[in-house]
Write a structure and sequence with these properties.
Lipocalin, 8 strands, about 25% strand, globular, single chain, about 40% helix
Length: about 230
């Protein structure tokens, strides 16, 4: 007795190939989706345990207002607050740079914030790294949305003061960028864009394979049969 042997038909082979191609193409997309869904809790945890120093270094700041001890708004051009107005960049390595609102350099040096977030200390330095002065001011508000410190013009009269209000800004630091750094940044952006496009390219490839498989199958079905 001759046993029947099951031979895969061309249609079966094409269908299997198409299914495999689509499955492979969708794998990166599924992985990316899984990564996105697990990343959110990590960010939330990081934000919850941020220290005062993390908050201050988390964004560039712009001076956007000032009020006196009676909660009266004070113009930023007022002589009592004008010297504290500008752009501020607190780097995570403990250095800082500040600029006037016209982007001219103001000061640079080192910075620290007390562990409880109640005081900011600046150690201003010249271009040679020599210390020019040290300034400590009490912080009255420090959140990702606002950074406010208090200036007391006369220590003998602490009842007269000005609160200098800062809010986050996307103003790029005015310092010039070296050509090599600019090129490196451009390369990094290209790499990031390529990486983000990976799942889309894979999905497109899978769709092309699917369309091609269907076309072959239809063509085969339309041909006259040579079998009796």
């Amino acid at each position: 007795m001759t046993k029947n042997r099951i031979v895969p038909t061309r249609r079966t082979m094409i269908t299997a190939s198409v299914v495999t191609a689509v499955a492979i193409s969708l794998a990166p997309t599924a992985s990316a989706f899984a990564a996105e869904t697990t990343a959110a809790p990590v960010s939330s945890i990081s934000a919850a345990v941020a220290t005062p120093s993390d908050v201050l270094a988390g964004t560039p700041w712009e001076t956007t207002g000032a009020v006196d001890q009676d909660e009266n708004n004070v113009p930023l051009t007022d002589e009592n607050v004008a010297n504290f107005v500008g752009w501020a960049y607190y780097n995570t390595d403990g250095t800082f740079t500040m600029y006037n609102l016209d982007d001219t350099p103001k000061m640079q040096g080192d910075w620290t914030v007390s562990a409880d977030g109640s005081e900011r200390i600046l150690l201003a330095k010249d271009t040679n790294g020599d210390v020019l002065f040290e300034r400590a001011v009490p912080i009255t508000e420090l959140t990702p949305e606002e950074f406010t410190y208090r200036v007391i013009p006369d220590e003998a009269n602490p009842e007269v003061y000005y609160d200098i209000i800062h809010t986050p800004t996307d103003h790029a630091e005015p310092a010039a960028t070296a050509p090599d750094d600019s090129e490196a940044a451009s390369d990094d952006e290209d790499l990031a864009e390529t990486g983000n496009a990976g799942p889309i390219v894979a999905l497109a490839a899978g769709l092309v394979a699917l369309v091609g498989g269907v076309a072959i199958y239809v063509t085969r079905r339309m041909r006259p049969s040579n079998q009796a």
